[in-house]
Design brief:
0% strand, Tetracycline Repressor, domain 2, Arc Repressor Mutant, subunit A, mainly alpha
């Protein structure tokens, strides 16, 4: 008789492996991190690692994309919000939040960008994630524009790309400048986006 799998225990173990791997990938980079080191960091055997993930690359990609479903769910919720502008700003804050809340995340993002230049599969995953986030920004921007909260002279496509670039810059600065405080800069990001989008006649 096959052994029953406890879904909660399985999910917890998988998350533990993801969290352990994230620390190594951020500190050592993808290329310099070995499967043996990943197993040692997580306190598991090689067989256990392969039970949860087919290999190092799949684990790396899982680390990078583990918050995608949460972002998709939040976007659907915000698309129904009664205050389109505040919904947009909440989404911007959500996209920037990992940089402010988890110090290793900006280093992971930088490593993913470097690896994307070497590996088409990693590049495709990053492009898909960026495309979905930018689509979400456009969607929420269009709602805010329809409610009169956005300068009508702004192009929604260009505005979404500009905001996306600001968020990316936040991660890059956090990864490369030790004195940069992403938590403080996240607040400035929201104020900058609000001011950028505000109609010129708004006090």
């Amino acid at each position: 008789m096959p052994r029953k799998v406890d879904p909660e225990a399985h999910a917890a173990k998988r998350q533990h492996i993801l969290d352990s791997a994230a620390v190594l990938f951020a500190a050592r980079g993808y290329e310099r991190t070995t499967t043996s080191q990943l197993c040692a960091q997580a306190g598991i055997s090689l067989g256990t690692l392969y039970h949860y993930f087919p290999g190092k690359k799949q684990l790396f990609l899982a680390v990078l994309t583990q918050d995608e479903q949460q972002t998709r769910s939040l976007l659907e919720e915000l698309a129904q919000d009664a205050d389109p502008m505040e919904a947009l700003l909440r989404f911007v804050s959500h996209l920037a939040e990992p940089a402010a809340e988890h110090p290793i995340v900006p280093h992971l993002v930088l490593e993913a960008m470097l690896q994307a230049h070497r590996d088409p599969e990693v590049r495709k995953v990053l492009e898909d994630a960026e495309s979905h986030e930018t689509h979400g920004l456009r969607r929420l921007l269009q709602r805010a524009a329809g409610s009169g909260d956005v300068d009508p002279e702004l192009d929604v496509e260009e505005a979404a790309s500009w905001i996306s670039s600001l968020i990316s810059a936040l991660y890059l600065q956090a990864a490369t400048q030790p004195e940069f405080d992403p938590a403080t800069q996240r607040k400035h990001l929201i104020r900058s986006v609000r001011a950028f989008l505000r109609p010129p006649w708004t006090p």
